[in-house]
Amino acid sequence: MTKSLLARQAPLADTAYQLTVLTQAEAAGAQLPAFAHRLRESGLLPLQPTKLGVMQINVGKMCNQVCKHCHVDAGPDRTEIMTRETMQLCLDALAQTAIPVVDLTGGAPEMNPDFRWLVEQISALGRQIIVRCNLTIIVANPKYHDLPAFFARHRVRVVSSLPHFAAGRTDAQRGDGVFGRSIRALKMLNEVGYGVEGSGLTLDLVYNPAGAFMPGSQVGLEREFKQRLGREHGVVFNNLLTITNLPVSRFLEYLLESGNYESYMQKLVAAYNPVAAANVMCRSTLSIGWDGQLYDCDFNQMLELPVASPVRHIRDFHETTLAGRAIVINQHCYGCTAGAGSSCGGTTT
Amino acid sequence: MSTYYNPADLAKFGNITEWQPEMGNKFFAYYAEVFKEGALTEREKALIALAVAHAVQCPYCIDAYTTDSLQKGADEAQMMEAVHVAAAIKGGAALVHGVQMMNKAKELSM
């Protein structure tokens, strides 16, 4: 298994260096115009929040996998995880608001020892919970085998990455044997009703391209995934969400090392879609880091670009003050505005 | 090194409309219509295009439809099978003319 950028002491572990790479390319050629320039042309600068619909809490960078495209640089060697005290601050903030959805991500969020406590508390507040489950965690250790039942008890919407219905393409991105373990976990989720029609338990899959290309039609890929996973593995799910890989962290490393960086950025820039730009998820999301710092999205979080607001930590949460901020943008944002758009909920147009 | 094919030229394909806008625009409108999902899915069309790209041995098309096939969700096995379809038809097209050769040879022979 490869290690995180941080464990390898790779230059890209430094977010300032990642931002230098992203902005140098901007200066290098007129073909990569500044993202702010495109937003201005679309009448969207400064980019402002709309109604806050999702509180996305990143409960830590610890993960049982080391995926090649991970924008979090997560892995077993990452120890940064959210404490119960910080979780309580998130719950206090949540209770003050009508935010309907809480999206739990990581790392593998389930590896945080207070994960189940957090789910129970959010559930008690009557909010919808999304967990971004990497699937393999369910079969990684007996203590996680009951996660499907736990999720079902709290009506958690499970959103899981499975980049391809072919084992080879999934394993190339997520690690050897991940596809087989993911199928086992999907079957365990299906057994408790997840993805099964009429159960009310939602199981969505996430498709990230396993390489330097953009996702194709969400509808077409969903149909193909349903056919192939159903026919070959007897697995069912609800929706396929296509997500474009952003040039951040390990995916940025992959792009640079494979010589695809410039052409990938050019593809994203050429596919800029003003409708997708108007619908970017950062306008309706508040992202909270493991240490309670606030960000416009999980990508900004990983680039250490905090919110441009006097309120920068969840302990100081103030919805109206945050609503007046301008969203922090950079060249990586082209990933969310390309083609049919991309967000943690799939396409945006 | 100067070569006949430059990968950067693929992105300039649209420029052909500069010297003949009417025909060029009609071609691209038709092209876009052809590749929309219809009786065939977008992925199936991408794989057909990939096979044809190999049959006509067009480097631009191979570049474009390898990318497009991946984007549409095809995997390596599907893409290589598409190339084998092209190879089988090209090989078969050569071989089936063997019948013409046999006919002619018989015509000329005692």
UniProtKB/TrEMBL annotation, chain A:
InterPro entries: Aldolase_TIM, ArsS-like_C, rSAM, rSAM_ArsS-like, rSAM_sf. Keywords: Iron, Iron-sulfur, Metal-binding, S-adenosyl-L-methionine. GO terms for molecular function: catalytic activity; iron-sulfur cluster binding; metal ion binding. Pfam families: DUF3641. It comes from Hymenobacter luteus. Residues 214-347 form the Arsenosugar biosynthesis radical SAM protein ArsS-like C-terminal domain. It comes from the Bacteria. This is Radical SAM/Cys-rich protein. PANTHER family: FE-S OXIDOREDUCTASE, SLR0304 PROTEIN. Its cofactor is [4Fe-4S] cluster. NCBIfam families: rSAM_SeCys (TIGR04167).
From TrEMBL, chain B:
InterPro entries: AhpD-like (IPR029032), AhpD_core (IPR004675), AlkhydPrxdase/COmuclacdeCOase (IPR026445), CMD-like (IPR003779). Keywords: Oxidoreductase, Peroxidase. GO terms for molecular function: peroxiredoxin activity. It holds the Pfam family CMD. Residues 21-101 form the Carboxymuconolactone decarboxylase-like domain. It comes from the Bacteria. NCBIfam families: ahpD_dom (TIGR00778), perox_w_seleSAM (TIGR04169). This is Alkylhydroperoxidase/carboxymuconolactone decarboxylase family protein. It comes from Hymenobacter luteus.
